[in-house]
Amino acid sequence: MDAAQEAQKREAFRHLVLNALERRLFFIPSFKIYRGVAGLYDYGPPGCAVKANVLAFWRQHFVLEENMLEVDCPCVTPEVVLKASGHVDKFTDLMVKDEKTGACYRADHLLKDYCKEKLEKDPKLSEEKAAELKHVLAVLDDLSSEELGAKIKEYGITAPDTKNSLSDPYPFNLMFQTSIGPSGASTGYMRPETAQGIFVNFKDLYYYNGNKLPFAAAQIGQAFRNEISPRQGLLRVREFTLAEIEHFVDPDDKSHPKFAEVSKLEFLMFPREDQVSGRQARRIVIGEAVSQGIVNNETLGYFIGRVYLFLTLLGIDKDRLRFRQHLANEMAHYAADCWDAEIECSYGWIECVGIADRSAYDLHAHTDKSRVELVAHEKYAEPKEVEKLVITPIKKDLGLAFKGNQKMVVEALLSMEEKEAMELKATLEEKLEAEFRVCTLDKVVTIKKNMVSISKEIKKEHQRTFTPSVIEPSFGIGRIIYCLYEHSFYTRASKDGDELLNVFRFPPLVAPIKCTVFPLVQNQQYEEVAKSIARSLTAVGISYKIDITGTLGLCWFYQFEPNVVQVPWSFINLIGTSIGKRYARTDELGVPFAITVDSTTSVTVRERDSKQQIRVDVDKVSSLMKESSLMEVLKRRAFSLWPPSRRSGAAFFTSKPYSTVSSPQTPCSRTEREAFRQAVVNTLERRLFYIPSFKIYGGVAGLYDYGPPGCAVKANVLAFWRQHFVLEENMLEVDCPCVTPGIVLEASGHVDKFTDLMVKDEKTGACHRADHLLKDFCKDKLEKDHELSIEKAAELRHILAVLDDFSAEELCAKIKEYSITAPDTKNALSNPYPFNLMFQTSIGPSGSSSGYMRPETAQGIFVNFKDLYYYNGNKLPFAAAQIGQAFRNEISPRQGLLRVREFTLAEIEHFVDPKHKSFPKFSEVSDLELFIFPREDQMSGQPTRRLTIGEAVSQGIIDNETLGYYIGRVYLFLTQLGIAKDRLRFRQHLGNEMAHYSVDCWDAEIESSYGWVECVGIADRSAYDLQAHADRSSVPLVAYEKYEQPREVEKLTVVPVKKELGLAFKGDHKMVVEALEAMGKEEAMEMKANLEGKGEATLRVCALNKTVTIKNSMVSISIEKRKEHQRVFTPSVIEPSFGIGRIIYCLYEHSFYMRPSKCGDEQVNVFRFPPLVAPIKCTVFPLIQNQEYEEVAKQIAKSLTAFGISYKIDVTGTSIGKRYARTDELGVPFAITVDSTSSVTVRERDSKQQIRVNVDEVASVAKQLTDGSVTWGGILLRYPTHSP
């Protein structure tokens, strides 16, 4: 097969895969109804499940098993950070433009395409020319802009579409640029990688790790690359998910204690020398590669081995995975060694993971730019005599010579390395002066001998100070997933042999659904057995798909098992059809196992790829599915009767919420509230629950990082949110990009209306939110002015009540009336004017395509409604959900973690027939009693009251059952997280807060030291959003209700006479036609009457912003009777929207309390997190430093890892009381103390009670306690208590 045929075969295979993926909604081109945006894609429900499973396994395989510190940093990054990292100057591709149309192309891609096409398709190509083109391809990445331009001209390469001539190549920076804050003076970018957030936090993370090396920090998050001309489909995109690890290590010791665990792994490697000499990749044992110097060091080798295991366990074919070493021209000047994990697919070999020894470059770069030392220390057992370079600038003489530039010259002198300093010393001694480059001044200055003293002195040192090296594995998650799709895809003949069927052979680890349950025929007994099996699968945390009826419909749901690596999904397929077709459909979704119910006592279990089946007793199905050896069982046995198992069935526990002591009440006075808040915030920052972002650069207002414990709490909250809503409520989860084209947000109203009123300090230009200044003035006067009259106090309270409804003019008048000035300078303020709160950017290189960072996740769901409705079997109601970052460019962020510029939203859009807003499960929440604050009570000055949801709906306080159901589910979610019930209320929006289209809106407000904080909004938004996008995109976003019998209905018919309208309105006639066709029945009939009575009528055309005259000859209006087979309507939307960061902060306050230490001499801090959200589930302490106890502790730690339980092990000699106090302050619910080699004690955090448990049982006990299958009270009944 020649190269052209091979290329055709690969392309045909790729199209098969992509067609299956898009048809089954694994992915969706983003903003499809607006004709999409190149390089942006959404994950549909099954793709979202695969991605979640891959990321969950990545966390298990790396973060948990390698004891890494996970962080979560913002995407918005200030310029100074990326200037230090080199991205502002060097993160570029060379671009050429079509000289007539302005279309942009990557210069190297055009040259690569030309060379490949000539080599593949030109049969007359000479050997010399072919060799030349192959050489160009080999050195392409190393060509300068001049060399690229010369080759493009030499080969006569033109614009692909137009054949027009091209400009010379020039660099285009690939970062999405934006502006942070309202002034426009602070440039920012959307991060091109997650790594910089880790590097700038090194100092805090090193401290968190006990000032010890080595350690690794990890981060999963979105990254952005504003590609010039995206191609290769899902592989080269403008927004993508990265998972990056930064392993900090002593540059003098890059050995790894666990290297032996991977040293015998053998896989394809492609060393630099083999590439240069033209040899192929070869199998090498990683231990040999390190010992022979092919791989630079053990730590790099260890991570190459771990990456190999990760990818192959996911399902990547071992024979199509290689590790390629970077050539010299690919290596950064500072890198010690770099390897890429490349996976072969239809596009060729694709770089999916980079594993690099980056030396100390990154930490040095940020140290130099920020002037904050990012260093580590090695303490010596005994002081050492060392020769030290001593540089002493003579500041007086430098000041006289350089005046205002003195400081920068001093800093440059002090930052010299030894070699440069000694050369300078020699020159000064010989010539009395020397030239010296000062980078911050960008010039060379003359240094005289009297300006600096340079010497070497012998000093005694107690520690060595050094900058750590960094080993960085960086994973392109989207690329890995796409290659997994290709490696998992194949076709096979149907049973009848009349068609080819698609199959994805996903391993159970990543499969979006784990098994299916099918009654062979529609039979009441079989259906009951299927339901029974489904319940048992749920109990052991196995996701499944069940088909028990002949009714059309699709829906997703979930079974939750805490601490399970996979994120299990389920999918009910309610389609009555043959068993063969049902198998085929689920095979195409990659479901590994199918359970067929063909009797009431036993069932068959079918394996997807072999299609082999075994027979199993009904009561043994769930335990069989749980066994990891199922594949081996199937290999050994063909279809046969499965013998009854001798093992006892699994014990199932009912999950119960973990009960804690009652939440502390919010302190009453303002002073007490602030003191309490300060205690919480100080603890959170000291224990690294959060870190002000870019702290070494002075921070950025409104941006915060989640440190390791905060990141774990957030991950646990989101996991429970997904279980409680997305999955238990059968929702369709999607994952859409943050970068959003302007047209989408114009349709939604954000471009025009997502604003706050701003004022500026007229002298300094500092910006302030106008309503905040007025609110602060009113509150300050009410709290501090003891001479305030009753009338004035009433006036100020009224202003606070109606503040959200003030226009710019009213705000301006009040600011002037009260003489409010700038808070810091007391300067006069400008008049208020609107400032749009979205981060604006530009999509693509031309600058003509305006985009924004999304202010909410909801729009990604609305624009996908048509696909999601189809995916749900064209049935309502259904709900779609999304978790992701949102952005709000606050004018003046305040209230700490509550009002930030980047935050995580979790949003649900529940689509429902506007005529039928009842809810089938409403009775499950109707008896819940909670605090509600209806609109009427607020207006009349009444307090909140307790009312059941059922009563609130029946009395018309809550508009409908669906809205009421979600209020109930939100209440359960928040209280199970640990929010105090008596500090949670649901407040109805006042009239002036409601959008004109909203039917009813409620906020879940949580009381904190800041007052009542809106954390969840639950709104009935009517059909506004879908209608807005339908109008703008001209794509109907509608649902259908099929009638059993055709119905006769009266229909309004408006027929514009386009010829007459064209003559009258010329270029505007299209907008007049649209306005006529958009008329409602009442408006149309009124026009008809005027036309018949007067011969003409007026029409307001909003698109023209004027009223026009319509003549009788221009339009025909009538009411016609028609028979309809279905009703077409735009669904309403019920939207619960969760501010995850706000919920977490309130959870911190509700969980925090102080209690006396054991000695009673100090107060110790405690977070009483339920195990559900606790960042670390348990700690392991040897009671004393003892080799045997430490071995037992390590054995327990391994058992906990195997169960997927997060833990912290402390083998230091600190007193046990102090170790308990330290972990109580982190909110760790259980502590395991090793005080013998056979049994240990387990302590509960809040009660401080202890039990004694055998060593071989303790991991199992910890799992039961942390997954909620048993309470502490239940454990006390089973094990003896221990009195310390």
From TrEMBL:
Catalytic activity: tRNA(Gly) + glycine + ATP = glycyl-tRNA(Gly) + AMP + diphosphate
Molecular function GO labels: ATP binding; glycine-tRNA ligase activity; transferase activity
Pfam families assigned to the protein according to its UniProt record, in alphabetical order: HGTP_anticodon, tRNA-synt_2b
Gene Ontology BP term (one): mitochondrial glycyl-tRNA aminoacylation
Localization in the cell: Cytoplasm
Principal subcellular localization: cytoplasm
EC number: 6.1.1.14
Entry's Gene Ontology cellular component terms: mitochondrion
Ligase found in the keyword field: yes
Domain called Aminoacyl-transfer RNA synthetases class-II family profile: residue spans: 15-1156
Entry keyword set: Aminoacyl-tRNA synthetase, ATP-binding, Cytoplasm, Ligase, Nucleotide-binding, Protein biosynthesis, Transferase
Zinc listed as a keyword: no
Record NCBIfam families: glyS_dimeric (TIGR00389), PRK04173.1 (NF003211)
Record text on subunit structure and interactions: Homodimer.
Similarity section: Belongs to the class-II aminoacyl-tRNA synthetase family.
Protein name per the record: glycine--tRNA ligase
